[in-house]
Amino acid sequence: MNIVAAVDNNWAIGNKGELLVSIPNDQKTFRLLTTGKVVVLGRKTLDTFPQKQPLPNRTNIILSRDKNFKVKGAVVVNSVGELMEYLKPYKSEDIYIIGGESIYEQLLPYCDTAHITAIDYEYEADTYLKNLDEDPEWVKTADSDEITYFDLSYSFVKYERVKKLGKQS
């Protein structure tokens, strides 16, 4: 499975229920990666979408503890176990975990690729993704040239989980 996130220098991903910044090229890359695929997200992330509606042209799966939560155009599951059962028919490489913080925390152990937009700035933030640069299980395998959007610099970075020697997958 894949993780997709935009992070600042402190691996912050959001503040007060909103993304840190909106970068059109990042949004375009996100659409290219996830269109026609499965996206897994939490209810709070869904609340940040236009009209709080699932993303078009994707299979949207919402992981929520609220057993009464329903949303048109999405599947709602109430546990990681239920999610994993639901995901069985899909190819792992077609599944994208898109946030927020608690969803990333719960599902990072199941992921083997992370598509990170690394923003060279430090925002006021209250939600974070684990710093993959400090995790020996992850290695940076691709890094774009630095891109500038007004006065903001960012790059697209790909991380992959290091396969442990002798460990059967």
Description:
Residues 165-169 have low confidence and may be disordered. The chain starts with a strand and ends in an 8-residue tail after the last strand. The protein has a single domain, classed as Dihydrofolate Reductase, subunit A. By secondary structure, the chain is of the alpha/beta class. The strands form 2 sheets. Strands 1, 4, 5, 6, 7, 8, 10, 11 and 12 form a 9-stranded mixed β-sheet that branches. The chain is built from 4 helices and 12 strands; from the N terminus they run βββαβαββαβαβββββ.
Number of E-state strands: 12
Q: What fraction of the residues are assigned to beta strands by DSSP? A: 25-35%
General shape: globular
Gap from first CA to last CA: 14 Å
Q: Considering DSSP H and I runs of 4 or more, what fraction of the residues is helical?
A: 10-25%
CATH architecture grouping: 3-Layer(aba) Sandwich
Mean pLDDT: 95
In sequence order, what are the helices and strands, one letter per element?
A: EEEHEHEEHEHEEEEE
For this entry, give a set of tags.
169 residues; three-stranded antiparallel sheet; 18% helix; nine-stranded mixed sheet; disordered C terminus; single chain; alpha/beta
Task: Give a brief rundown of this model.
By secondary structure, the chain is an alpha/beta fold.
Write the layout of secondary structure elements.
Elements: E1 2-7, E2 12-15, E3 18-19, H1 24-34, E4 38-42, H2 43-46, E5 59-63, E6 74-77, H3 80-87, E7 95-97, H4 101-107, E8 113-119, E9 127-128, E10 138-143, E11 147-149, E12 152-161
Parallel strand pairs: 1-7, 1-8, 4-5, 4-7, 5-6
Antiparallel strand pairs: 2-3, 2-9, 8-12, 10-12, 11-12
